[in-house]
Design goal:
Elements lengths: L10 H18 L10 E2 L2 E6 L11 H10 L4 E5 H8 L7 H8 L5 H12 L3 E6 L7 H14 L3 E5 L2 H14 L2 E5 L11 H5 L5 E6 H8 L3 H8 L3 E6 L1 E2 L10 E2 L8 H11 L4 E4 L11 H17 L3
Helix pairs in contact: 11-12
Length: about 300
C-alpha cells in the first residue's frame, strides 16, 4: 500500500490559523470594537445626555448604550447619573451631600472615563456644579471634570454665576461654560457682560433657544463670539412670531436655520462641538434613542451633502 505523506495541517498552516483566530478574537472584543465617529465634515456632532431622560433605565451604563445606539462619539454628560454611579447618598440632606462630595475618592470617576473611552465616546463637557455650592463642592466638580477628561462644566448663564465661578475656572484651568434658555430675549441681557468676568468663561450657546426667543439668525452672534463659544446646543424651534411661537420641533420642521449654523462652523473650522438636545415631543411609537439618531443623520447630511 502506498504511504500518503499529505497532512492537511502543516506547521505553517497551523501558525496561520492560530494568528487568524487571535486576530478575530481581538477584533471582536469589547475593548477593541470598531469605534464609530460622529465627526462629519470636520464638525463634531454630539448630544447632551439629557436628551435620553425619557428612557426607562437612567443608569450610566444604559445611557452610554443609548449614546452608542444613536451613533455618537461625544457627549455633554449630565452629572446626576455620574454621581449615582460613584455612589452619592440618595438623600436630600445638603449637609450629607456636601460631606460626600468633599471626601469621595476619584476612583469611580476614573472608572467612568475608562468605560466611555473603551467604547470610543469622548466626555467633552460635564454638566455638574452650581454657583450656590460651597467652595469645596465647586472644587470637587472641577476635580471630577478633570478626572473624566472634560474641557469644562456647564451651568445656567447669569452675571452672578460668572462672577462666582470665574476664579475657580482659573484655579483649575478648566472652562465654565454657560448655557442660555430664553434670556437673550430679555431687554438688557448681554452675553458680553457675562464673558467679561474671566477668560475661562465660555458659552454653550443654545442656538434653538436663542432663535426661539429673539427671532434673530444665530449665525450673526456665532460669528462675533465664536472664540468664546465652546459648544452649541442644536435644536429646531419656531420663532417668536410664528403661529405657535418658540416651539420645539422635529429637525427640519421648525424655523431654526440648523443646517446654516452647522455649515458656518464647518466653513470656518472652528473647534465648536455641536450637541443635539432632544426636546421635541416624541412621535408615537418612537423613543429618544431613535429620535437622536434621526437628528444625527440630519446633521450629517447638512455637513456632507454638496450644495
Amino acid at each position: 500500500m502506498t504511504k500518503n505523506n499529505f497532512h492537511p495541517f502543516t506547521r505553517n498552516t497551523l501558525v496561520r490559523v492560530f494568528f487568524l483566530v487571535v486576530f478575530v478574537a481581538f477584533s471582536l472584543s469589547p475593548a477593541t470594537a470598531a469605534k464609530k465617529s460622529s465627526k462629519f465634515g470636520g464638525v463634531q456632532i454630539g448630544a447632551i445626555t439629557y436628551s435620553y431622560r425619557s428612557m426607562p433605565d437612567q443608569s450610566l451604563p444604559a445611557i452610554l448604550g443609548y449614546v452608542l445606539e444613536s451613533g455618537l462619539s461625544s457627549v455633554e454628560l449630565m452629572g446626576g447619573p455620574v454621581e449615582q454611579f460613584a455612589g452619592i447618598p440618595q438623600v436630600k440632606d445638603p449637609q450629607a451631600l456636601r460631606q460626600w462630595r468633599t471626601t469621595v475618592s476619584m476612583d469611580k470617576f476614573r472608572e467612568i472615563k475608562k468605560m466611555f473611552n473603551t467604547k470610543g465616546v469622548k466626555i467633552d463637557i460635564l454638566k455638574l456644579g452650581s454657583p450656590n455650592w460651597s467652595d469645596e463642592e465647586i472644587d470637587y466638580a472641577f476635580n471630577v471634570c478633570k478626572t473624566l477628561g472634560a474641557r469644562g462644566i456647564t451651568m445656567e448663564i447669569s452675571e452672578e454665576a460668572a462672577k462666582r465661578m470665574a476664579p475657580f475656572a482659573e484655579k483649575h484651568n478648566r472652562y465654565v461654560i454657560f448655557h442660555n434658555h430664553g434670556q437673550p430675549g430679555t431687554p438688557g441681557f448681554s452675553f458680553d457682560k457675562v464673558l467679561a468676568y474671566g477668560p475661562k468663561l465660555m458659552l454653550n450657546l443654545d442656538a434653538g433657544h436663542y432663535f426661539g426667543a429673539t427671532g434673530l439668525h444665530p449665525n450673526e452672534l456665532i460669528e462675533r463670539l465664536h472664540d468664546r463659544i465652546a459648544s452649541l446646543h442644536i435644536k429646531d424651534k419656531t420663532g417668536p412670531k410664528a403661529a405657535n411661537p418658540n416651539k420645539n420641533m422635529e429637525f427640519g420642521k421648525g424655523e431654526t436655520p440648523v443646517a446654516e449654523i452647522l455649515q458656518l462652523v464647518q466653513k470656518n473650522k472652528w473647534p465648536i462641538t455641536c450637541d443635539i438636545e432632544l426636546e421635541y415631543d416624541l412621535p408615537q411609537g418612537s423613543d429618544a434613542v431613535k429620535e437622536v439618531a434621526k437628528c444625527v443623520e440630519y446633521c450629517r447630511k447638512a455637513l456632507v451633502t454638496k450644495k
